Amino acid sequence: MAAFARSAPCWVDAQLPDLEAGKRFYGELFGWTFRAGEGPYADAYSGGKLVAALAAKQDGRMPTAWGVYFATDDIVASVARIREAGGQVITEPVRAGRAGVLAQAADPGGAVFGLWQAGDREGFQKQNEPGSFCWTEVHTRQKDRVDAFYEEVFGFQGTDLAQDAEPFQDTEPGAAASTPAFRMWSPAGTEPGPDTAVGGRSVITDAFPAELPSYFLSYFAVEDCNSAAGHAVRLGGRISAPPFDIPYGRMAVLQDDQGAVFAVLQPPVSENGAE
Where are the transmembrane segments (predicted)? Predict the structure, then answer.
């Protein structure tokens, strides 16, 4: 049995101009160690478990960004569904050695994501723990088209959340709330809701420049959000959204020292002190 349900996020990697600088930044911030991976990649480990990869950009026109991959057991069929649903295939399925097969695509709003069909590598060996991936969401202006796309391609079942329950909103502080702008995705065959959600969709409002493209924001779990944000700045990064509380903990949106955007999330502490 595969380690990841079909369509679940199973991997993240960052494309960076300077790989060694990236290793220093994330090694200091998350305590990651690195080993040489396939091709230009450096595999990242947390506590000896595989959590992500960093890569040196092969083309300077590529964005400096974190990318997320969704699991599939038939990447050719997934690519066909993407086209049928109005998406764009950027990279046709290509074998990554014995590790697996990958492809890259964009949804109708332009947000880029990856597909991963596992070979020897299933994906994360650790997640939802400090120093590892814990959540991803697409930010888009084309809510209706994008919702229909992910439901058709991945079989996601959506749950709309009230405005005050959103993990992260693309609204400026004090901006007027409109319709619920956040939707959680649960895999096909599960009861939709926060307990089964594997990702989500947020709306980019008119409060942001029209030039801001659609994008995926991936989150990493941390023990202390405030400390992680401060540490990122000391390492040469920037804070895009200062730490704030949400129903699922305390989060911040950060940029590394090369401009790649990501979020950190400190899980809430329950009444008995457990996270």
Answer: none
In the sheet where 9-16 sits, what is the strand order? 33-36, 41-46, 49-56, 9-16, 65-71, 112-118, 100-106, 88-96
Q: Is the fold of 9-118 the same as that of 133-266?
A: yes
**What residues have CB less than 8 Å from 220, skipping those under 6 apart?**
30, 131, 132, 133, 134, 262, 263, 264, 265
Q: What is the fold of 133-266?
A: 2,3-Dihydroxybiphenyl 1,2-Dioxygenase; domain 1 (3.10.180)
Q: Are 105 and 79 in contact (CB under 8 A)?
A: yes
- At residue 67, the pLDDT reads 97
Sign of the CA dihedral running 154, 156, 120, 69: positive
Q: State the pLDDT at residue 189.
A: 87
Question: Is it the case that residue 179 has pLDDT exceeding 60?
Answer: no
Domain locations in the chain as residue ranges: 9-118, 133-266
What six digits make up the tokens of 88? 């764009």
- The Cα-based distances of 203 to 92, 104, 142, 195, 216 in angstroms read 28, 22, 8, 22, 12
Res 5: pLDDT: 81
Q: Is 154 helix (H, G, I), strand (E, B) or coil?
A: helix
For range 81-99, the mean pLDDT:
95
How many other C-beta atoms can be found within 10 angstroms of the C-beta atom of residue 38?
15
pTM, two decimals, is 0.90
CB-CB contact of 62 with 46 (8 Å): no
Q: Are 77 and 101 in contact (CB under 8 A)?
A: no
Spell out the CATH class of 9-118. Answer: alpha beta
**254 vs 219: CA distance, rounded Å:** 10
Alpha-helical (H) ranges within the chain are 19-30, 75-84, 143-154, 225-234
